[in-house]
Amino acid sequence: MTRTTFVIPVYPGTTHLDFTAPHQFFARVPDAEVIVASRAGGTLECDGLTFAGLPRLADVAACDVLCVPGGFGTFDAILDADFLAEVRRLAAAARFVTSVCTGSIVLAAAGLLDGRRAACHWYWRDVLARFPGVTVDAARVVRDGHVITGGGVTAGLDLAIAVVAELAGEDRARAIQLGLEYAPEPPFEAGRPELADGPTLDAVRTALSARDATVRERVDAFLAGR
Question: Which residues are catalytically annotated?
Answer without folding.
Answer: 101
